[in-house]
Specification:
single chain; alpha/beta; 5 domains; five-stranded mixed sheet; 32 helices; 9 strands; about 10% strand
């Protein structure tokens, strides 16, 4: 009712006995209201004003004032609800001989009685604790805080709507459409706010990001279980970091992925390093009980440490499964796992460099540019092998072009030499052969079976024979048109590399997919499975009893739900809507519905193509434009979670929370918080 806090008006409107306990204690600990009180008087044709002497507030500790009523009151009389006393009801406004009136009131029985009750009240509410009185902001200060918060709300909205532009000009443009009162206030605090400074802008970004974090944390705490995903990322300044995203099902049934944070490990990426990141990012979310799955790409951890990380996680969260995420391209994951071999690292760096070089050259054939523009790094190898001779001709054309600069000519010479280099050409042949097998395996990763993993391992192991290696070597020598005296020595060298690469890939496949056998229950929600026998359905349920006992109180209920649901679905002639009953009657199929939510929480399952690629795609898009500056890095949460930010910005409470956070920062110089 009152824009500025006036405790006297609040007391007159709501008796003190009806206040909440915390508000009562807050009132007693606060400094009494001491506003300026004046009395207008008319003398002849002139109107004068008599002001209350504020020193009397300190001489009479019981007297206080009301800003809105412009009158004096007695605190004990108001609290004791003295009906027949103007000092406790309507207020005293006659300022002539005010000192005499104050002395008279002290002697009245009503005041003595009220003072006694007031003393008892303080003792009951505050006990023997020393009464610490904190100052109350004056009416002018409160108004300044209100206007400052309005200005800060415009500043925050400027960041949300126009982030990346010139912040200060955009803010001043928005202020030009505000009220004159706000414009005048901005002129007063402009130097203190210093909107153009990096400190102010970074402070606003951090507070917005912190509020987004708070919202995401609340979402995670409400979910029944979640999965996490690690990704290795490198920005334009070659600064490497690890991103952590979390996936869960919201209470409304929507599968959601959220970006948690970037981490920059100071040491090499061992199992211990990654496990520290897990505990650091998930400790407050009860991950020991709620973590059901995790996935990690090939660059986020050293290849031979993946098994150790899996063991560390399962030691504290035994229900958590290592799964291959549908967000990760398996070829890229396996390629990253080979970074421990210098030859492989040089090879894939050369391929990526070739793609960048051809994409930026104006003289590159249009069909080459178009294909490379949208091609993921893992598919560049296929493009190079399919257009080997064409690319060599492109290098010659660029070299002979009189408009080509020296850098372009040097790069063409480098790639021309690479196309004749035995090591490069051998690795092209090796990885083309291997990745063809991986491509066939990757087509049905979202419906992966144990037998498919075994087949992939067998195919890779079949490649480990000397006949295939010799065939590769002979074709390469003829392809490069190069005669070498030490061919036998080179062949032995490449033989070692060839077997090491295959051994590493086989180990990676076995480690990354060893939990596939524990994912058989996901087939409960495949339409074709409802042609299976009832016994096989229950067998799948039995396979998860030990692992997920903390999620299901009674597995007998889950088994009965599966049995009823299985019979119901087996009667259907069409299968496109085989899950419709599960959603429509979720109150009946409670445990089966919970199991379905658990399945779609795992990153290895695919429900919506756009939904699953969105979070990781936003992270990669953001990372491609980051050059290591802190001001850009701290904005990650705002940029990646932009859609969530736009939803939050529709609520006034979000702005109030961000302003409170900014007001409590050490570097904030303007008044934004009603500090007591």
């Amino acid at each position: 009712m009152f824009p500025l806090y006036d405790p006297v008006c609040c007391l007159l409107q709501t008796p003190f006995s009806n206040w909440r306990q915390i508000d009562k204690e807050d009132f007693l600990r606060s400094e009494k209201p001491m506003p300026s009180i004046n009395e207008r008087r008319k003398k002849g044709n002139k109107i004068g004003q008599r002001n209350f002497n504020k020193t009397l507030y300190f001489q009479f500790d019981w007297v206080c004032g009301s800003h809105y009523k412009n009158k004096l009151f007695c605190i004990p009389c108001i609290l004791n609800n003295e009906k027949n006393n103007i000092w406790g009801t309507v207020g005293h406004h006659q300022l002539r001989n005010i000192r005499l009136d104050l002395v008279r009131h002290v002697k009245t029985a009503a005041h003595i009685r009220s003072s006694l009750e007031f003393a008892k009240l303080k003792k009951n509410l505050l006990g023997n604790n020393e009464l610490k009185v904190t100052p109350i902001l004056s009416a002018e200060q409160l108004e300044n805080v209100r206007l400052n918060r309005r200005i800060m709300q415009l500043a925050i909205r400027t960041f949300i709507q126009g982030f990346g532009g010139n912040f200060e000009p955009l803010l001043e443009y928005l202020l030009s459409g505000a009220s004159l009162q706000i414009e005048e206030q901005y002129k007063k605090i402009r130097s203190e706010l210093n909107a153009g400074s990096e400190i102010t802008q970074n402070g606003i970004i951090k507070c917005i990001s912190s509020s987004i974090d708070d919202y995401i944390s609340n979402e995670i705490k409400l979910c029944k279980f979640f999965a996490i995903q690690f990704d290795d990322l490198t920005d334009l300044a070659q600064k490497s970091r690890i991103s952590v995203t979390i996936r869960f099902v919201k209470p409304d049934g929507k599968v959601t992925e959220r970006f948690l944070n970037f981490y920059e490990p100071e040491t090499i990426r061992t199992a211990a390093t990654l496990f520290d990141i897990i505990t650091q990012s998930l400790e407050k979310f009860d991950y020991q009980r709620k973590l059901v799955g995790f996935s990690i790409d090939g660059g986020a951890i050293l290849a031979d440490h993946l098994n150790d990380l899996q063991a560390k996680i399962k030691e504290v969260a035994p229900q958590a499964l290592l799964v291959h995420s549908c967000n990760h391209n398996l070829k890229t994951v396996l390629q990253q796992s080979l970074n421990g071999f210098p030859e492989c690292r040089r090879f894939f760096a050369a391929l990526n460099g070739l793609s960048l070089f051809l994409s930026k050259r104006s003289s590159t054939p249009i069909f080459v540019k178009k294909k490379l523009a949208w091609m993921p790094d893992c598919n560049i190898l296929s493009f190079v092998t399919d257009h080997w001779d064409t690319l060599k001709d492109v290098f010659i054309e660029i070299t002979n072009d009189p408009n080509s600069d020296q850098n372009s000519v040097r790069e063409c010479d480098f790639f021309t030499a690479k196309f004749e280099e035995l090591e490069f050409v051998l690795l092209v042949a090796i990885f083309k052969d291997i990745f063809q097998i991986v491509d066939e395996f990757s087509e049905n990763l979202d419906k992966l079976k144990v037998v498919q993993v075994e087949n992939l391992v067998n195919l890779l192991e079949e490649k480990q024979n000397e006949t295939i290696l010799n065939e590769h070597f002979k074709s390469i020598v003829s392809k490069t048109n190069t005669l070498c005296k030490d061919q036998d020595i080179l062949c032995k060298k490449f033989k070692i590399l060839y077997y090491n690469v295959l051994d590493s890939l086989i180990l990676q496949v076995k480690t990354r997919f060893q939990d596939t056998i524990n994912l058989r229950y996901t087939s409960l929600f495949e339409p074709l499975k409802y042609s299976s026998t009832h016994i096989s359905m229950l067998h799948l349920v039995n396979s998860i009893e030990d692992r997920y006992s903390n999620f299901f109180s009674k597995f007998s209920r889950l088994k009965n739900e599966v049995q009823v649901y299985h019979k119901q679905q087996s009667k259907r002639t069409a299968t496109p809507n085989f899950l419709s009953d599960l959603f429509e009657y979720s109150n009946i199929f409670q445990d089966l519905n919970k199991l379905f939510h658990l399945v779609v929480t795992l990153p290895c399952t695919r429900v919506s193509e756009n939904e699953y690629s969105s979070c990781l795609k936003k992270i990669h898009d953001f990372q491609k434009n980051v050059v290591g500056r802190e001001s850009v890095t701290i904005s990650a949460k705002m940029v990646i979670e932009k859609e969530l930010l736009e939803v939050l910005a529709e609520k006034q409470t979000f702005f109030e929370e961000v302003i409170d956070k900014f007001g409590n920062l050490e570097d904030t110089k303007i008044e934004l918080v009603h500090k007591k």
